[in-house]
């Protein structure tokens, strides 16, 4: 079965979708990613969709699911590199990807991911400080 | 509906999910052939992707006719999705934003309609469903 590779880099998981998605492939990615977050104890997930020319309501829903599932598993996620035509089509379709963090490119996405992780850990430290 | 002339047409058989990606490529070819820009191409292919999923999920597969058409002033792409599935009981309800019998978001039909210039759906319970969409080059 065809699968999209997931790369582990330190605390992060990196996914670059280089092929056009179809339903089964997107569903596999969803479950593979959640399993990988658990296996590696990842703190952040970065998904690059700059090569994806079509996102319809199903694939959009999967991207949303990945964001929510990662958060439940304690990881932050960011989707980067959406093509302008894809963004315009998604909005017209009625899909606004609420709750999914996005960034223009990989570099900005990594920045956002790091700051999100710092923020979530920072809240933890504050709590510790108060209890001391 | 405006009178259109068909320049060329091709039938595409959809029986399983693996047919979807080659089908989307065929639609892209047809869009490129009429000189459609990237945004309209994306809208058309996304609409086609939604409808082909319905065709597979609810209709059990079917055929799609891919046509290059002209109205004399402008060229476009027309897609006719036909299945012999159970049909849709309440078309008005199916065309409402937020309605779905499946597990998707229910953006399918109304969302798809917004992406194209012409959208026509005909369905008979027990006979099947035919959806026709048309996207003009500069539509």
Structural overview:
The complex is a heterodimer of chains A (132) and B (139). With 132 residues, chain A is of the alpha/beta class. The longest helix of chain A is centred in the last third of the chain and has 26 residues, at 106-131. In chain A, helix 1 (23-40) packs parallel to helix 2 (57-72). Chain A has helices at residues 23-40, 57-72, 84-93, 106-131; strands at residues 6-9, 12-16, 44-48, 76-80, 101-103. Chain A has one domain: STAS domain (Transcription Regulator spoIIAA, 2-Layer Sandwich). Chain A is 53% helix and 17% strand. The radius of gyration of chain A is 15 Å and the shape is globular. Chain B has 139 residues and is α+β, with helices and mostly antiparallel strands. Chain B contains 4 helices and 5 strands, in the order E-H-H-E-E-H-H-E-E. Chain B has helices spanning 20-33, 38-57, 91-94, 108-115; strands at residues 5-14, 62-70, 75-83, 118-124, 128-136. The longest helix of chain B has 20 residues, at 38-57. Chain B has a 5-stranded antiparallel β-sheet with strand order 1-2-3-5-4, with helices on one face. Chain B has a single domain, classed as Heat Shock Protein 90 (2-Layer Sandwich). Chains A and B meet through helix 2 and helix 3 of A and helix 1, helix 2 and helix 4 of B.
Could you give the distance between the termini of chain A? Answer: 52 Å
CATH architecture of chain A: 2-Layer Sandwich
Beta-strand proportion of chain A = 15-25%
CATH homologous superfamily assignment of chain A: STAS domain
What percentage of amino acids of chain B are in beta strands? 25-35%
User: Percent range for helical residues of chain B?
Assistant: 25-40%
Mean pLDDT of chain B: 90
**Main pleated sheet of chain A:** 5 strands, mixed
Name the strands of the widest sheet of chain A in spatial order: 1-2-3-4-5
User: Under the CATH scheme, which class of chain A?
Assistant: Alpha Beta
